From TrEMBL:
The protein, known as: Endonuclease/exonuclease/phosphatase family protein
Species this chain originates from: Comamonas koreensis
Top-level taxonomic group: Bacteria
One GO term describing the cellular component: membrane
Alphabetical keyword list: Endonuclease, Hydrolase, Nuclease
Amino acid sequence: MTDTHDDLPILRVATYNIHKGVQGLGPVRRLEIHNLGLAVEQMDADIICLQEVRKDNRKEESFFNNWPEQNQADFLTPLGYTAAYRTNATTRWGEHGNALLTRWPILESNHRDISDHRFEQRGLLHVAMEIAGRRIHTIVVHLGLVHGSRLRQTALIHEFIKAHVPDDEPVIVAGDFNDWGFQVKRMLAGFGLFEYDEQPLMTYPSRLPVVQLDHVYARGLTPCGLFVPRGRIWWRMSDHLPLIAEFRLRD
């Protein structure tokens, strides 16, 4: 737990699309996974939700001399944290998906395919943790590029929560929602999921962000803060900036 306020613990949750640990195109692309490892540790978050995390990629492994031997989820896990990973997409060269890193004990983790059409492989990662003596759920998502797909995937997230998360247990839904509007946000609010809403914080594209594609919503927790790290070191690592949210646990 990162801090306390009004005698109630504060839970810090980060979400970050890491762009598979590589930036740039073609022969000038560069490996950023080592810098991302340092960045993840600096977030000092209780829960870190990652998208576009590679389990393996034979093409990139042969291109970069310093490609890590571990899969990216394990490589990025700070000392004292535990990782959960599930594959969303299988390609000619390897696999990638969502990951969750946490300093709290993991009780269970599972995956649900929420692909809406054959051109995009999408999934959600569900992890239940014991946090300050309470069972808290986190769902890591990376929604589709098509507007209708995102709405249908949001409905599937709601169905998954109803089936797997008891009404009296807090749940966090975090990730890259790929949504340039507000319909997904309104749908989630209708399901009782809210984010810190004082002002939007732009996360994409990282060099000159104009839209907030990344969000952290919660039910059963009180949103109390939101932060986006900025600067050259951050926009060099991924096409997204990370988003760090804070929630107050309720009595």
